[in-house]
Specification:
mainly alpha; globular
Length: 331
């Protein structure tokens, strides 16, 4: 069923051949791989919240270390696959892309430190609003009807989600700074998606992301040492293992496997998977007592998930490689 040399990375054009390529039922394995990735990405904010509540006073250091380790893994991958041969000056566009992504992650983790896991993950769906606006500003691409409907729904869901309690009078409540930072993070993720869609159409996705991650790492280290207290991070064995898990499995490996799996799974399936990480993060946070369940979380979460599905399911783009780049907002 699997060839003996399935651990060897081969290179054919721009597509790496790994275990998925050697299995007969590729669609089934790719589907299972995407489910695993969604679960892993759902774990990320829960682990991040745990680290921030356990003597980690520098969210940006966590981003930087995660980016550094993931960059090393990705760099080894592109060396093995010889993707580096495609390097040219046009890849310098990764510098502003990396700075945008670094800003998004910094706001994301600062927001996560000041609000609940569920609110942080759902409010990052503001990318649904920011992406079409950014595309219009960059290339004058007019938003489609589904983008407008999704944006309005996302706003409604976000306002409800920021409330607190089962009492209808508490349905709308002034958002906390953590909620605001998470919304800004989601908006910046949306800008990054639009930026990638416009400027990375002809780029090797692995090389593009590796360079972008490297820029993110450098920017995060600089921010951490200038504005935070990175030396106060307690490098205990549990914290080290969690950071390694986030970096290797939840970032580098997930992105590589997803890039390969997207060839065998329909765009509709990927679009449906998009909001599931937020749902899984919320379920895990509730199960371990990291937060409490309320009416706002239920209603706001459902509305936001609906807005993401409306935004994703009605896209006219069916090209796998381009769809992959558009969806690269969960590194």
């Amino acid at each position: 069923m699997i060839k003996k040399n399935y651990f060897t990375f081969l290179w054919k054009g721009q597509i790496p051949l790994t275990i998925i390529e050697h299995v007969k039922n590729k669609k089934t394995l790719a589907f299972i791989a995407l489910i695993a990735i969604v679960i892993l990405w759902g774990v990320v904010p829960v682990i991040g919240k745990y680290l921030l509540e356990n003597q980690l006073d520098s969210p940006s250091l966590l981003i930087a270390v995660r980016g550094l380790i993931a960059s090393v893994v990705m760099f080894i991958f592109i060396l093995i696959t010889k993707a580096y041969k495609q390097w040219n000056k046009s890849y310098l566009i990764c510098i502003p892309a990396g700075l945008i992504l670094a800003s998004a992650y910094i706001f994301q983790f600062i927001g996560l430190d000041q609000t609940s896991t569920s609110k942080s993950t759902f409010l990052e769906s503001f990318s649904v609003i920011a992406t079409p606006i950014s595309l219009f500003l960059m290339v004058r691409e007019r938003p489609k009807w589904n983008a407008i409907v999704a944006s309005l729904l996302c706003l409604v869901g976000a306002f409800i989600l920021c409330g607190d309690g089962w009492n209808f009078s508490e349905l709308l409540k002034v958002p906390s700074m953590g909620d605001i930072f998470s919304s800004i993070a989601g908006s910046l993720f949306g800008v990054n998606i639009a930026f990638t869609q416009v400027f990375a159409k002809d780029k090797n996705p692995f090389l593009y992301v590796t360079i972008q991650l490297s820029v993110l790492t450098i920017a995060s280290f600089i921010y951490a040492f200038l504005f935070e207290h990175p030396l106060l991070f307690v490098f205990g064995p549990i914290n080290i293992l969690l950071v390694l898990f986030l970096s290797i499995f939840c970032t580098a490996i997930c992105w590589i496997v997803r890039a390969i799996s997207v060839k065998y799974v329909s765009g509709v399936t990927i679009a449906v998977f998009n909001p599931m990480s937020a749902v899984i993060a919320t379920i895990i946070a509730l199960c371990i007592g990291q937060e409490r369940f309320n009416f706002n979380l239920l209603v706001g979460g459902i509305i936001i998930v609906t807005s993401i599905l409306i935004s994703s399911l009605f896209k006219e783009n069916k090209e796998p490689q381009r769809a992959l780049k558009i969806l690269v907002n969960q590194l």
